[in-house]
Design a protein that fits this description.
Blueprint (H helix, E strand, L loop, with lengths): L1 E5 L4 H12 L4 E5 L6 E6 L4 E5 L2 E2 L5 E4 L17 H23 L1 E3 L2 H5 L3 H10 L7 E6 H10 L4 E4 L6 E3 L4 E3 L4 E3 L1 H6 L3 E9 L3 E10 L2 E8 L20 E4 L4 H14 L3 E9 L4 E7 L5 H7 L3 H10 L1
Parallel strand pairs: 1-2, 1-6, 6-7
Antiparallel strand pairs: 3-4, 4-5, 8-13, 9-12, 9-13, 10-11, 14-15, 14-17, 15-16, 17-18
Helix pairs in contact: 1-9, 4-7
Length: about 325
C-alpha cells in the first residue's frame, strides 16, 4: 500500500492521485490539516511498530511526503493556552521520530523534517564541496563588514531570508517578507552598527534562471527567461502574473548534472527543487534548494508529465 502525506489544498497531489487511480493502485491520503489518530507507537525488545488511523506502517510499501506532517494533537487541545506550545514541541519530536523510523524501514520520499529544517547556508557549503559554483555570500550583524562586502562586490548585492520568509501578524500590524531584493547604500547607512544577522550575496548578471525538480535521481530541468522583466530580473519568484516569464525545457551539461546528483546524495534529500543561474559569464551557479518544491508549472510548461512519473514510481 502507498501512503500520501499532503495538504487538502495541494493540487499536485490530486494530479498524482488521478494517475494512481488509473493504475488501480492501493493508497491512503493523509492531509496535515486533519487530526491523525496515533493509535500507538510501540517499541520493545523484538520490534517497533507504528499504527496511525488503523494503518500499520509496517504494512505500507512506500510513503510520499508531499507536504506537511501527521497531526497527533486533538483539536480540543487548542484551548489549552500556554500548554499548547509545550504539547506542539512534544508532537514535533514524535513526528520526526516516526519519519526517521519510516525512512529506515520503508521507501520514503520527501521529508517534513527537511522542509522545516531547510538551512540554506548548509546547502551552499554542500553545493560548493560538490563542485558547483556558488555566489559570494555572507551573513553578518556588523555594519562595517556589510559595507566592505557591498564595496567588494561593486555595490551590486542582494539580500534574502536565511531560512524562510517572515510572516508575523498582530492586531496592530503585519510583517511579511519582501522576497529577494537589491541592497543599496542608503539602506546600509540607515542601519545601526549592530543588528540581527543579515544574509547577503553578490548580485549575478544572468542570461536565464534554471529550475531543477528532482525525484530520487531523476532530474527535470527548465530554463526561465526572467532577465528581461524588471519585476523578475533579480528573482523569478517575484512573479509577474500578468506577463509570465517564458519557460522551456532545458538539458543540463554532463558535468553540471553529475555535480547536481552528487549534491542530492550528500544533502540527503531525495526530492525537491533546485534553483540555479546561467550567468552572463557562461557559468552555472547554484542558488538554493527547496526540499519540497512546486513542480506542477514545470511539468506543464515542459510537457514532462512528472505526476505520471511519480505515480508510476509509487505503484512499482
Amino acid at each position: 500500500m502507498i501512503l500520501l502525506i499532503s495538504s487538502k489544498f495541494d493540487v499536485t497531489t490530486n494530479e498524482v492521485i488521478k494517475w494512481l487511480n488509473h493504475f488501480k493502485a492501493s493508497f491512503v491520503r493523509f492531509n496535515y490539516e486533519n487530526y491523525s489518530s496515533l493509535d500507538n507507537f510501540s517499541i520493545n525488545d523484538n520490534e517497533t511498530s507504528i499504527k496511525i488511523n488503523d494503518i500499520n506502517l509496517n504494512k505500507v510499501n512506500k510513503i510520499w511526503n508531499r507536504r506537511g506532517k501527521f497531526k497527533c494533537l486533538p483539536l480540543i487541545l487548542n484551548k489549552t493556552g500556554n500548554l499548547l506550545t509545550y504539547l506542539k514541541k512534544e508532537e514535533d519530536s514524535l513526528v520526526k521520530s516516526i519519519e526517521k523510523f519510516a525512512k529506515t524501514n520503508l521507501d520514503y520520499i520527501g521529508s517534513y523534517k527537511d522542509e522545516v529544517e531547510n538551512y540554506k547556508l548548509d546547502h551552499l557549503i554542500i553545493a560548493r564541496d560538490c563542485g558547483l559554483k556558488i555566489p559570494n555570500s555572507m551573513v553578518t550583524n556588523n555594519k562595517d563588514d556589510l559595507k566592505l562586502f557591498f564595496n567588494s562586490n561593486k555595490g551590486e548585492i542582494i539580500t534574502k531570508d536565511i531560512r524562510y520568509p517572515i510572516f508575523i501578524t498582530s492586531e496592530d500590524y503585519k510583517i511579511s517578507s519582501a522576497g529577494t531584493f537589491k541592497v543599496n547604500k542608503r539602506m546600509i547607512n540607515k542601519l545601526g552598527n549592530h543588528f540581527a544577522p543579515i544574509y547577503v550575496q553578490e548580485c549575478i548578471n544572468k542570461e536565464f534562471e534554471i529550475r531543477i525538480f528532482f525525484f530520487k535521481e531523476k532530474l527535470f530541468s527548465m530554463s526561465i527567461f526572467s532577465q528581461n522583466d524588471d519585476k523578475t530580473k533579480i528573482d523569478y519568484r517575484n512573479y509577474n502574473e500578468e506577463i509570465p516569464n517564458r519557460c522551456v525545457p532545458f538539458k543540463l551539461p554532463k558535468e553540471v548534472k553529475k555535480n547536481v546528483l552528487k549534491f542530492i546524495k550528500l544533502s540527503g534529500l531525495n526530492t525537491g527543487s533546485i534553483d540555479m543561474i546561467f550567468s552572463s559569464n557562461k557559468e552555472y551557479i547554484f542558488i538554493e534548494v527547496n526540499p519540497m518544491g512546486q513542480f506542477d508549472w514545470l511539468s506543464k510548461n515542459c510537457n514532462y508529465y512528472i505526476e505520471e512519473y511519480i505515480a508510476k514510481y509509487l505503484f512499482s
